Amino acid sequence: AQSVTQPDIHITVSEGASLELRCNYSYGATPYLFWYVQSPGQGLQLLLKYFSGDTLVQGIKGFEAEFKRSQSSFNLRKPSVHWSDAAEYFCAVGAKEYGNKLVFGAGTILRVKS
Amino acid sequence: ETGVTQTPRHLVMGMTNKKSLKCEQHLGHNAMYWYKQSAKKPLELMFVYNFKEQTENNSVPSRFSPECPNSSHLFLHLHTLQPEDSALYLCASSHDHLGEQYFGPGTRLTVT
C-alpha cells in the first residue's frame, strides 16, 4: 500500500536558520511529489512539485526540495527561515497508476523562534 | 489561493439538520475533490469528480452526499451527521487527473 511518512511532528528553528523537513514515501510506482503549506484556518497552498527531470526543484517563498529515488525521499529545504514560515507542512505523493489519488503525510508543524 | 472558494467558512449544525457545503473553482479545471481534515489525522480523500463524473468514493458514509452539476461547482450535502464528523472540509481542483491540486480555504464544521 502507498504511504507517506513525515517523521517529525514538530520542528522549532530560529529565525534566519536553515530548515529541512523530511518526507519518505512507499509507492509501487514512479511517484510524483508535492509539498504544501497550511496556515491556521486556511486551505493548503502548493509550494512545489516534482514530476520528472531535474531532481532539485525550486518552489515559492524560497523553498526547494530534492527527490532522491534511492532513499525514497523528497525533503523540503530553506536556507534561511522567516517568522512568517511558521505553519504546517504536508508532503503528498501520487502516481499515474493511481490517477487522482494523492496520499498525504501527517504533516510537520514548524515553529520559528525569534 | 482565491482560485477555489468555499462557503460557508464556518458551520455549526445539529445531528438532525440538513446542510450543504459549496465549492467553486475559477481555474478552468476538470477535476474536483472533497477532503476531510481532522485534528491529528492525515488528510482523508472523500470524493473525486472528473468532468462531472464521480470517479472515487473512498468508503464515505451515506450521510455525506456529493453533487457536481458542472466542472466548476461541487457540493457536499450533509444530513444526520455525528459529532465525530466535526472537521475541516477542504475542496480542491486540478486541471486533469494527474495534475497538482489547488485547495480552497475549507469549511470548519462543528456537529453538536
What is this entry, summarized?
Chain A has 114 residues and is an all-beta fold. Chain A has no helices and twelve strands.
User: Approximately how much helix is present in the residues of chain B?
Assistant: under 10%
**Average predicted confidence as pLDDT of chain A:** 93
Whole-number radius of gyration of chain A?
14 Å
Strand proportion of chain B:
over 45%
Low-confidence stretches of chain B: none
Q: Could you give the distance between the termini of chain A? A: 41 Å
Query: Helix and strand string of chain A, N-terminal first?
Result: EEEEEEEEEEEE
How far apart, in Å, are the first and last alpha carbons of chain B?
30 Å
Order of helices and strands of chain B: EEEEEEEEEEE
Strand content of chain A: over 45%
- Evaluate the radius of gyration of chain B: 13 Å
Number of helices of chain B: 0
What does this structure look like?
The complex is a heterodimer of chains A (114) and B (112). By secondary structure, chain A is mainly beta. Chain A has strands spanning 3-5, 10-14, 19-21, 24-26, 31-38, 44-50, 56-58, 64-68, 73-78, 87-95, 103-104, 108-113. In chain A, β7 and β8 form a beta hairpin. Chain A is globular, with a radius of gyration of 14 Å. With 112 residues, chain B is mainly beta. In chain B, 0% of the residues lie in helices and 57% in strands. Chain B is built from no helices and eleven strands. In chain B, the strands form two sheets. In chain B, strands 2, 4, 5, 6, 9, 10 and 11 form a seven-stranded mixed beta sheet that branches. In chain B, strands 1-3-8-7 form a four-stranded antiparallel beta sheet, with no helix packed on it. Chain B is globular and about 35 Å long. The mean pLDDT of chain B is 92. Classes of the chains: A mainly beta (114), B mainly beta (112). Chain A binds chain B through residues 4, 32, 34, 36, 41-46, 49, 90, 94, 96, 99-102, 104-107, and chain B through 1, 4, 6, 31, 33, 40-43, 45, 48, 50, 55-56, 90, 92, 94, 97-98, 100-106, 108.
